[in-house]
TrEMBL record:
<dbReference type="InterPro" id="IPR036188">
    <property type="entry name" value="FAD/NAD-bd_sf"/>
</dbReference>
<feature type="region of interest" description="Disordered">
    <location>
        <begin position="1"/>
        <end position="20"/>
    </location>
</feature>
<comment type="similarity">
    <text>Belongs to the flavin monoamine oxidase family.</text>
</comment>
<feature type="domain" description="Amine oxidase">
    <location>
        <begin position="37"/>
        <end position="457"/>
    </location>
</feature>
<dbReference type="Pfam" id="PF01593">
    <property type="entry name" value="Amino_oxidase"/>
</dbReference>
<dbReference type="InterPro" id="IPR001613">
    <property type="entry name" value="Flavin_amine_oxidase"/>
</dbReference>
<comment type="pathway">
    <text>Amine and polyamine degradation; spermine degradation.</text>
</comment>
<dbReference type="InterPro" id="IPR002937">
    <property type="entry name" value="Amino_oxidase"/>
</dbReference>
<dbReference type="GO" id="GO:0005777">
    <property type="term" value="C:peroxisome"/>
</dbReference>
<dbReference type="GO" id="GO:0046592">
    <property type="term" value="F:polyamine oxidase activity"/>
</dbReference>
<dbReference type="InterPro" id="IPR050281">
    <property type="entry name" value="Flavin_monoamine_oxidase"/>
</dbReference>
<dbReference type="GO" id="GO:0006598">
    <property type="term" value="P:polyamine catabolic process"/>
</dbReference>
<feature type="binding site">
    <location>
        <position position="352"/>
    </location>
    <ligand>
        <name>substrate</name>
    </ligand>
</feature>
<feature type="binding site">
    <location>
        <position position="246"/>
    </location>
    <ligand>
        <name>FAD</name>
    </ligand>
</feature>
<protein>
    <recommendedName>
        <fullName>Amine oxidase domain-containing protein</fullName>
    </recommendedName>
</protein>
<keyword id="KW-0560">Oxidoreductase</keyword>
Length: 490
């Protein structure tokens, strides 16, 4: 027997991993790589459909880019914190509703540009002067007009360009849209907010595709108690191996063999790869045989941006009672903003959120220096600010387990690349925020791709096992009765 044939037989004969629990040995098996929300959603669905499931997670915790920290004595999210689309159509709504988790709605708008209502902002210049609210609103209207002009440019040019370039062209065509003085700075702040949404600078965001993402109705709501309960619920009862960094995925017609950093191997009928796009780009995981060219192209070409959080915990509140504090400046790079968590949670916490190049630059600093940097920005606008008593700093760009915060539409890269990233290759299924055509870069997008991967995997493996009615459908018919979401605003 040649060695190839022998290893295939081994795969076929050994569908179970070392400690697969009480599941029957004859049931199909799957290895889920990555214990973020996408991987856990896939694992949960397949486990509930009678598969033997093992989740291999490189970190010493689950949740991935959903990371609720409790070291302040209350929950704060270092990764995702909003549910974008507070409505029953949101794939996560049934779960969040059933858990009774409260949401604090920061905006009723479905726009990617306004996850905060304008009236909840307080913007300041670098000298601590508050920008009059009517000017903030007026500049917001100008920003909308500029975007309309960029839309015309988009219709005229077949080649893609960056949103930054299109804005410059819009100014050339419509000099009346140019602003100066403080109004210019406010405009830069709007641009800075847009860059925050994509976690990328305006000169790398695609004009053609930036608004292709499907936005659910219901606006944007903060998870007041953090996202962790959602993760814990999905993970309950699953066989999850922490500190298991996958380095190789071998696929054969009858199974997969997955190797982790210390050389241990796991075999199963199929695998769901739910690691971040940044990790796939880095080639940390070797696929054998190599993934097809179209898949590698999608991995290489999709953009991954950076957004971080510097969370400052104060003794008590000294800032105005608004949801968002903004610093306006000459360029979007110098602008910044703080989310006031006190409004939603009652805790004296401000969250500084740099994105794009600024986030990249701040990630080079020590945590102490990063926290000082954020605090200095705050002192510019509120000179009487008191020193924080604690801080937390995220490093999503350099953390080897993420290598970026979330995907975005880079210039010249078709939106369909998200779908290409999702499409299975033989018995390898792909999930994660960057595989979501409709809701990339989001928790609910990642979650729904996990369910999709599970369903695709179930169908494929059933082709082999041929026992269609043995398993529950992964999604659809049996979905739980929706419980209304708890939404507040103070
Ligand atoms: C700062 C920040 C703010 C955000 N804000 C929001 C928000 O408010 N609302 C929203 O909807 N979305 C937000 N997002 C995006 C959201 O967090 C992500 O889209 C989503 O959590 C991604 O889930 P995932 O399962 O695709 O990936 P991940 O959560 O990254 O999961 C992938 C898992 O794979 C593991 N892994 C990596 N390499 C390996 C390996 N070699 N072997 C095994 N395991 C490996 C990782 O440790 C991780 O646990 C934010 C993200 C960031 C970073």
């Amino acid at each position: 027997m040649d060695s190839q044939h022998k290893s295939n037989r081994q795969l076929q004969r050994a569908p179970c991993f070392s400690s697969a629990g009480q599941r029957a040995e004859a049931s199909p098996s799957v290895i889920v790589i990555g214990g973020g929300i996408a991987g856990l959603a896939a694992a949960r669905a397949l486990y509930d459909a009678s598969f033997q499931v093992v989740v291999l997670e490189s970190r010493d915790r689950i949740g991935g880019r959903v990371h609720t920290d409790y070291s302040f004595g209350f929950p704060v999210d270092l990764g995702a914190s909003w549910l974008h689309g507070v409505c029953k159509e949101n794939p996560l709504a049934p779960l969040i509703g059933r858990l009774g988790l409260p949401l604090y709605r920061t905006s009723g708008d479905n726009s990617v540009l306004y996850d905060h209502d304008l009236e909840s902002y307080a913007l300041f210049d670098m000298d601590g002067n508050q920008v009059p609210q009517d000017l903030v609103t007026k500049v917001g209207e100008t920003f909308e007009s500029i975007l309309k002009e960029t839309d015309r440019i988009r219709q005229e040019f077949s080649d893609d360009m960056s949103i930054g370039r299109a804005i410059s062209m819009a100014f050339d065509r419509r000099p009346d849209l140019r602003l100066d003085g403080i109004a210019h700075k406010v405009l830069q702040w709007y641009l800075c907010r847009m860059e925050g949404w994509f976690a990328a600078d305006a000169d790398s965001i695609s004009l053609k595709y930036w608004d292709q993402e499907e936005l659910l109705p219901g606006g944007h709501g903060l998870m007041v108690r953090g996202y962790r309960p959602v993760i814990n619920t999905l993970a309950k009862g699953l066989d999850i191996r922490l500190d298991h960094r996958v380095t190789q995925v071998v696929r054969r017609y009858n199974g997969v063999k997955v190797t982790v950093e210390d050389g241990r191997t796991f075999v199963a009928d199929a695998a769901v790869v739910a690691v971040p796009l940044g990790v796939l780009k880095s080639n940390w995981i070797k696929f054998e045989p190599r993934l097809p060219e179209w898949k590698e192209a999608a991995i290489n070409e999709l953009g991954v941006g950076i957004e971080n959080k510097i969370i400052l915990h104060f003794e008590k509140v000294f800032w105005p009672n608004v949801e968002f504090l903004g610093v306006v400046a000459q360029s979007s790079y110098e602008c910044s903003y703080f989310l006031n968590l006190h409004k939603a949670t009652g805790h004296p916490v401000l969250v500084y959120m740099p994105a794009g190049q600024l986030a990249r630059d701040i990630e080079k600093l020590s945590d102490e220096d990063a926290a000082n940097f954020a605090f200095k920005q705050l002192q510019r606008i509120l000179p009487n600010a008191t020193t924080p008593i604690q801080h937390l700093v995220s490093h999503w760009g350099t953390d080897v387990n993420s290598l970026g915060s979330y995907s975005y539409d880079a210039v010249g890269k078709p939106h369909e690349f998200y779908e290409r990233l999702r499409i299975p290759v033989d018995n390898i299924f792909f999930a994660g925020e960057a595989t979501s055509m409709d809701y990339p870069g989001s928790v609910h997008g990642a979650y729904s791709t996990g369910l999709m991967a599970a369903e695709d995997c179930r169908m494929r493996v059933l082709e082999r096992y041929g026992e269609v009615d043995l398993f529950q459908p992964v999604m659809g018919e049996d979905s739980p009765v929706a419980v209304p979401l708890l939404i507040s605003r103070m």
